Amino acid sequence: MTKNLDKIGLSSIADNYQLFYIDLWGVVHNGVNLHDEAINVLKQISNKNKDYILLTNAPRPNNSVKKFLEKMGMEKEMRDHVFTSGEAALNYLKKNFLNKSFFHVGPPRDFDLFKDFEKDKLNDVAKSEYFLCTGLFDDHNKDLIFYKNLFEGHIKKKMVCTNPDLIVDRGTSRELCAGSVAMVFEKMGGKVEYFGKPYPEVYNQSIDNKDKKILSIGDNLNTDIKGANLQNYDSLIISSGIHKDEIKQFGIEKTAKSYETVCNFIQSELKW
Hints:
With 272 residues, the protein is α/β, with parallel strands linked by helices. It has helices spanning 36-47, 62-72, 76-79, 85-96, 144-151, 178-187, 200-206, 221-231, 244-250, 252-258, and strands spanning 3-4, 19-22, 51-56, 82-84, 102-105, 130-133, 158-161, 167-170, 173-176, 191-194, 214-218, 234-238, 265-267. The strands form three sheets. The protein has a seven-stranded parallel β-sheet, sandwiched between helices. It has a four-stranded parallel β-sheet with strand order 5-6-7-10, covered by helices on one side. Strand 8 (167-170) and strand 9 (173-176) form a beta hairpin. Helix 4 crosses helix 7 (200-206), helix 5 packs across helix 6 and helix 9 (244-250) crosses helix 10.
């Protein structure tokens, strides 16, 4: 049974945990503005001398996201807790794919991810050794058929996907993410190496989490909550995020079950 924390707040259960994994987009901000109540939660967790990681499926290195949050007005002490799926992927690429040519699938704003090995980026799919997928091209950000045609005949190449999210809400608009492109590749028979929630690498790289009681907080059942379930962490779903319509119509129990997940707690917004 999922417990609703709207009336009693996160403070009612915070003492049960030593570490909090907190999603950024949809929980701490909406892509445009920071959420004041969520910022207060981060302050209160620090006041209790507990650890938290702002764990995000952003396909860029930590520093890129920190700069984005700085522009939003987040103070440095909080920004220092950021860990991205892009950072996890970057560590993997440097160890396993150095000097291998790749074709980048994604927008120019993600170029920071591979600036250390930009010489290996090719504009010819046929000559590249693997696909590095960080998102969708700006001029094909709604058309998944384009990517099916792009991958045709190149399914034997490996794909590294730096953001397993399928969709994200930016303000009031909904956008496709890298995970949607990777899904096209997989359905065609291709093999994808994913970095980010719900896969364990991003959790384990971010902090020493061994033997800690952990609560994972997010708005995405496919990534935040599924990741918590797979890692045996407790979970808190923020119901005002990408599943808001489903939760409103069917309730959290039925909605979570449809994604093969279990949520321990629910809040309409992250609030202390």
